Amino acid sequence: MGHALCICSRSSIIIDNKRYYFIQKLDEGGFSYVDLVEGAQDGRFYALKRILCHDREGQKEAQTEVEMHRLFNHPNILGLTGHTFMERGGKNEAWLLLPYISKGSLWSVLEKLRDKSSSMSESRILHIFRGVCEGLKAIHDKGYAHRDLKPTNVLLEENDKPVLMDLGSMNKARIEVKGSREAMAVQDWAAQRCTISYRAPELFNVESHCIIDEKTDIWSLGCVLYCMMMLEGPYDLVFQKGDSVALAVQNPVAIPQHCRYSEGLQTLLSSIMVTNPQERPNIDWVLERVKSLQSSDGGAMETNRV
User: What average pLDDT is seen over the chain?
Assistant: First the structure.
């Protein structure tokens, strides 16, 4: 890990002995900021994610995010170019240097379509969704779960290749809950780290003795598919109204009666968004169905699950 240095007079930073020039702010969240920077040596643009670490636990979480990036070398998962930890003004920060994808997130693309009263073609939905599934499969195959899959955490490259980002909520796929105290701890963690309108039903009311696994991602995946089809998440409006998302997710997802997409795509969506995680399909099943829909151009699907 290289030494980091802020050279304020020139608005530049050094990570792993390479200089980068600050260009502009891109985004900011509760505990992190994202800046656009340019490499002094290669002239390429990068996204610099600065995570504020308020305590040792915060530093540990940032280190985990770094390790998650390093764990994967997959075209549908955002890579890590470099990183460092440093102290600025008495505060600790983790700096993650990431590839910059100018097209932005899947959500920004969907918003533009909505503003134009347009929609996404079924073939485009399947193309993007397949890439999301490929990235998620890579995560699940290594025994991890993303835990915060949503359109804002999917970047799109120019050829519509999706790239999963924000690995800060990732953890081991299988969590065994033993007792009410552990159940409450998992529930509290989910409330902080898993976006409410994309959060799986089993994370709202965690049972005292249960297994939480990667099926939480499958539910979120269904929400992402719904959002691509309807240009808004299935529970976005519920949340915006101030109604109970926890209650809403206990019922089957409602597909609008005049949905413009094929019966095959609608069946896929209904098959993914099953309230009981034990009845939810795994990522391999979902990926196979997507491939089947692509090859049959939205034809009929089998309904048997793995």
Answer: 91
Cα(148)–Cα(170) distance, integer angstroms: 8
Residue in the block written with tokens 């033993």 = 178
The verdict on pTM exceeding 0.85 is yes
User: What is the C-alpha to C-alpha distance for residues 197 and 239, in angstroms, rounded to an integer?
Assistant: 7
Q: How far is CA 185 from CA 112, 172, 177, in A?
A: 38, 15, 9
CATH of 106-296, one of 1.20.1060.10, 1.10.510.10, 3.10.180.10, 2.40.100.10: 1.10.510.10
- In the chain, domain spans: 5-99, 106-296
In this predicted model, what pLDDT tens digit does every residue of 269-284 receive, in sequence order? 999 999 999 999 999 9
- Relative to beta strand 32-39, strand 45-53 is antiparallel
Please tell me if the domain spanning 5-99 has the same topology as the one spanning 106-296. no
At the top level of CATH, the class of 5-99 is alpha beta
User: Which active-site residues does the annotation give?
Assistant: 148
83-99 as b/e: b if 16+ CB within 10 A = bbbbeeeeebbbbbbbb
